[in-house]
Write a structure and sequence with these properties.
It is built from four helices and five strands. By secondary structure, it is an alpha/beta fold. The chain is globular and about 35 Å long.
């Protein structure tokens, strides 16, 4: 079962921009093969960082306004929204370790404490 939550144009600001904890956003589409490859990685990150990092997904076909708003031109695009910081993003079906390193997620690991 997926640990990621779908967000829409209506819920994005509240769930992502208004979040008190960092949020990883997976911009994806159902027809995208690499997106299907990265979905289990998103679930792993959601499980590993539960309570300290939120993981959500945006279907770019259903929510083209959000894709345009954040300049998403290729999918999957994985974006990291940390409160008080500019969002960071990477494009492509990257392995978990690459995403953890790109966004510095180890800072939020409960196991590191």
């Amino acid at each position: 079962m997926s640990k990621t939550t779908a967000v829409t144009t209506e819920t994005f600001d509240r769930e992502v921009l208004g979040s008190e904890i960092p949020v990883v956003v997976n911009f994806w589409a159902a027809w995208c093969g690499p997106c299907r490859m990265v979905a289990p990685v998103m679930d792993e990150i959601a499980r590993d960082y539960e309570g300290s990092v939120k993981v959500v997904k945006v279907d770019v076909d259903a929510e083209p306004e959000l894709a345009a708003r954040f300049g998403v031109s290729g999918i999957p695009t994985i974006a990291f929204f940390e409160p008080g910081q500019e969002p960071k993003a990477v494009v492509g079906a990257l392995p978990k370790r690459a995403l953890v390193e790109a966004f510095g997620l180890d800072r939020f690991s409960r196991r590191a404490a």
